[in-house]
Amino acid sequence: MRNRMLLTVPAIALGALTLTAAPAMADTHESWSGQASLESLNDSGTTGEAMIELNGSEATVSINVSGAAATFMDGPFPHAQHIHIGADGVCPDPSADTDGDGAVSTPEGVPFYGEVSTSLTTEGDTSADSALAIDRFPGGDAYTYERTFELNDDTAAALADGTAVVVIHGVDPANLSEEAAEKMSPLNEELPLAATLPAACGTVNVSQMGAMPEGGADTGSPVQPVDNTGLAVGVAAGALVLAGGGAWAMRRNSTRA
Ligand SMILES: [Cu+2]
User: Fold this and answer.
1) What is the Å distance from ligand 1's center to 30 Cα?
2) What's the longest Cα–Cα distance across the chain?
3) CA 131 – ligand 1 centroid, Å
4) Which residues are near ligand 1, the ion (C-beta closer than 5 Å)?
5) Which whole number is the average pLDDT over 208-227?
6) Residues 189 and 68 grouped into a single domain
7) Do residues 32 and 9 share a domain?
């Protein structure tokens, strides 16, 4: 009980300090999570969910997709998937079909969701250079994807301001107009249009933002420093504990940490 009392005051002081310090922290130390509900485009029947958790510059992206095109040339239909940025941060509606072939192509959607900034590949490079690396994307009619990788600054900034969009590509040609089903892709003339058409799309909503270490304020334990600012706060809190005569309590906490 005495132990708890000694730690309460520094814990409150620490909470206040951490809150004050949070806006000053560089975005490279941000920690948040975001979510996107993926809705069908181009009558694909493809839907899903995307989750993005950012810790510093490292992102963990999880995607669940179902109702997607199943097979392509006797193999699983490859589904290129990207984070698009730099436009309105929304998904295109059918009016985006400017050439009137009944399908919204990837370029026709660019004024809505922007250009590829991150390729959600299964391995290797995740930059826009891998946008059409169809041998490094998941495939088939339903899949789960999860990968942790270094997120580039442009994508992180767009995610934070709500203008990043997750797009899953690849539509079964049977769902398209005859004209669209027979076309080749404007992105790669060796691929059918169907292979690169957007199939599902969702704006990422960042649901939780902040730099406070989890549970730091309510347990009363010394903080785990998240960066130099956090370390300084931790040291200050330690000094307060010592000033309160709680040196032994502090030691006990340190050995547990
Ligand atoms: Cu894309």
Assistant:
1) 25
2) 80
3) 7
4) 82, 167
5) 50
6) yes
7) no
The answer on 6 and 118 residing in a single domain is no
Structural domain boundaries, residue 250: 2-25+212-256
CA 172 to centroid of ligand 1, rounded, Å:
16
| 194 shares a domain with 245 | no
pLDDT tens-digit series, residues 47-93:
999 999 999 999 999 999 999 999 998 999 999 999 999 999 999 99
> What is the Å distance from ligand 1's center to 115 Cα?
8
Q: Which residues contact 28 (CB under 8 A, 6 or more apart)?
A: 56, 57
**CA 79 vs CA 16, 69, 138, 217: distances in Å:** 47, 8, 6, 43
* Same domain, yes or no: 19 and 118: no
84 Cα–ligand 1 center, Å? 6
- All residues at 6 or more sequence positions from 43 whose CB lies less than 8 Å from its CB, including other chains: 171, 175, 176
Cα of 167 vs centre of ligand 1, distance in Å, is 5
pTM score, whole prediction? 0.72
Q: Radius of gyration over alpha carbons of the chain, in Å?
A: 24
Q: What percent of the chain is modeled with pLDDT above 70?
A: 69
